[in-house]
Design a protein that fits this description.
Elements lengths: L15 H20 L12 H7 L10 H11 L22 H13 L9 H16 L7 E5 L2 H17 L2 H5 L6 E6 L4 H9 L7 E4 L9 H13 L3 E8 L11 H11 L2 E5 L24 E5 L11 E5 L2 H6 L35 H11 L1 H23 L5 E2 L7 E5 L6 H13 L5 E5 L2 E7 L7 H15 L8 H4 L5
Bound molecules: pyridoxal-5'-phosphate.
Pyridoxal-5'-phosphate binds next to helix 6.
């Protein structure tokens, strides 16, 4: 076996120099992949060979690093999601950065367990929390926690609000049947409903309030629903506003929601999964006014900030309330006055996880390398590109806009269509490797949805996507050649 990692007692390499060369090769492979990402297809399904390899049984004997890297290069690397590519516009996916890749390597090298204890990983997570408190004008001692994603952060927020409403006894007794009611718009992400299910409250306890034609919650309808529930003996405890709805990027009137929450004494949570970080842009920031009044805020660093997956975050105004929902002191987690076990608040006191990776490092890296302003500019640029796309669709002889653009999301389709053609166009575009928009349903019809998140996307990319979609819609296959549409530039 001619490889660095072989059969000694320890899992370290027998020969560090061979390992060094192989590891440098892996880094070079990925640097080249990122450098030339534009030249390949956006996406391609895993090959038969790759699928076959993915079904191989558990290897009893290892084949070493070099052979495994070769398998990665052939059977894994070419078949990823596609979200690195500038013409990936589906759903809301971050594009990653070369710096993020390096950050993950450094974090993996340290292999810190950030559940607690006295080490620098905890301090870096606290630092990022303070940065976020500063960005969103939260109190300096606000609590924060990295989690997998906003689905999880929203779930934790529901648990904190539940704890706040029911008091500590509910943690012991559980919830038999609850009169607690929560409120969000009919545009809210599905994970809010799931959070209600998982929190034992029941999805029926979440009221889905009508939104206006721009996709924002209707505060009048919200107040009426609250009033009706109170009259019926329910106990409203939570309003979830959305900053950047998943379908069209709509931002709820957060200031009005904050007023209602203050008056009604209910917890104000904001799902800002991708939209909240528009706060980094002076131009976009006014759209989010009121976000600074939230009791808790969930967002993702892995979407518009392009940190490698996964990097969700929860920011909570009142750290005592946050802690009360989770903290528990098992003897093996006792705190010591000195040494490694010192420190009062550990991340495990603020969420369900004990062992946790060093997610904070990649955020720390991104802010240190690029600076908050530059990251804000890339977010601004996505919105400018979305405006460009809107103009291109408005000028299109084939398509029309299907929803107003709020931030970076543009939905379009054929006039009078029920959406069947649009579904076909999107699947064709994805399978051609030219582009990867996704679909959503607006007013009951499927539409083509382009979410411009990727920092690599240009006006030319958008032109290619629309031209290809137009060609598909009009079945003008002469205009639809991959060779023509995918510019090769070295
Ligand atoms: C993406 C998204 C979520 C879910 O976040 P994950 O990180 O995928 O768990 C929730 N809400 C909105 C508005 C989103 O865009």
């Amino acid at each position: 076996m001619n490889s660095a990692v072989s059969g000694g007692q320890s899992l370290d390499p027998d020969d560090w120099e061979t390992f060094r060369a192989e590891a440098h090769g892996a880094l070079d492979l990925m640097i080249e992949h990122l450098r030339t990402i534009r030249e390949g297809p956006v996406w391609q399904p895993p090959s038969e060979q790759a699928l076959g390899a993915s079904r191989a049984p558990l290897p009893r004997a290892g084949k070493g690093l070099a052979a495994t890297l070769e398998a990665f290069r052939n059977d894994v690397l070419p078949y990823a999601t596609g979200n690195l590519h500038p013409r990936f516009m589906g759903w809301i996916h971050g594009a990653g950065t070369p710096v993020g890749m390096v950050a993950e390597m450094l974090a993996a090298g340290l292999n810190a367990n950030c559940g607690g204890r006295h080490h620098i990983g905890i301090e870096i997570e606290r630092q990022v929390t303070r940065w976020m408190a500063e960005l969103f004008c939260f109190p300096e001692d606000a609590s924060g926690l990295f989690v997998t994603g906003t689905s999880m952060a929203n779930f934790l927020a529901v648990l904190i609000a539940r704890e706040k409403a029911l008091g500590p006894s509910a943690r012991a007794t559980g919830i038999e049947s609850s009169s607690l009611t929560g409120y969000t718009s009919d545009q809210a992400h599905g994970c809010i409903k799931r959070a209600f299910e998982m929190a034992g409250l029941g999805a029926n306890q979440l009221r889905r309030i009508a939104s206006d034609e721009a996709g924002r919650i209707d505060p009048r309808a919200l107040e009426e629903a609250l009033e009706a529930d109170r009259a019926a003996g329910c106990q409203p405890f939570l309003i979830v506003g959305t900053a950047g709805s998943v379908d069209i990027g709509a931002v709820d009137p957060l200031n009005q929601l904050a007023d209602i929450c203050a008056r009604e004494r209910v917890w104000f949570h904001v799902d800002g999964a991708f939209g909240a970080l528009a706060q980094l842009s002076p131009e976009l920031r006014p759209m989010l006014v009121g976000i600074e009044r939230a009791d808790s805020l969930a967002f993702d660093f892995h979407k518009w900030l392009h940190l490698p997956y996964d990097a969700g975050f929860l920011l909570c105004r009142d750290r005592t309330a946050h802690r009360a929902a989770f903290a528990d002191r098992a003897p093996y987690l006792s705190r010591a006055p000195r040494g490694l076990a010192q420190g009062e608040d550990w991340p495990t006191d603020f969420g369900p996880d004990l062992s946790r990776g060093f997610r904070a490092l990649k955020a720390w890296m991104a802010f240190n390398v690029y600076g908050a302003d530059r990251l804000g500019e890339t977010i601004e640029r996505s919105c400018a590109l979305a405006r460009f796309l809107v103009a291109r669709i408005e000028a299109s002889p084939v398509f029309e806009l299907k929803a107003p653009r709020a931030l970076n999301i543009v939905c379009f389709g054929l006039p009078g269509s029920d959406g069947a053609v649009e579904s076909e166009i999107v699947m064709d575009l994805q399978e051609s490797g030219i582009a990867a928009p996704s679909t959503t349903r607006i007013n009951g019809c499927t539409v083509i949805r382009c979410a411009i998140v990727n920092h690599r996307t240009t006006e030319e990319d958008l032109e290619i996507v629309v031209a290809a979609a137009e060609a598909l819609a009009t079945q003008d296959s002469s205009r639809f050649k991959r060779e023509d549409l995918v510019p090769v530039e070295k």
